[in-house]
Specification:
The protein is 60% helix and 0% strand. By secondary structure, the protein is an all-alpha fold.
Length: 107
């Protein structure tokens, strides 16, 4: 069964893949060398760089980290931990589950 991805999600994966490809070349890594550093095959690296949405998000993020690409606007691990902390604080303010219940539209 093939999975359908939203156009914006496809564009995001393609943009990140292209950015990884550019950065790999700037770092002067061959595809084989970079794939070894990421822990994937050259075929998987090609899929990442071509923006194939079937590649696991963790694998794509690993390639981005190896390439030195900031994720979520964070420049390093400490910044990313701060982003995660902020999101965690937001989650504590929100209900843990959604209760649809009856909707009162009578204003």
């Amino acid at each position: 069964m093939s999975r359908s991805h939203l156009p914006l999600a496809k564009e995001a994966v393609a943009a990140l893949g292209a950015l990884i490809a550019v950065r790999r070349r700037e770092l002067k890594f061959t595809a084989t060398e970079f794939a070894e550093r990421v822990g994937v095959t050259r075929v998987t690296l090609r899929k990442i760089e071509q923006g194939d949405p079937s590649v696991a998000v963790g694998t794509v993020f690993t390639a981005a980290v190896v390439a030195g690409i900031p994720l979520f606007g964070a420049d390093d691990r400490r910044d990313l931990a701060a982003v995660r902390g902020e999101i965690g604080r937001l989650l504590t303010l929100l209900p843990s589950r959604v209760d649809r219940g009856p909707v009162d539209n009578d204003f």
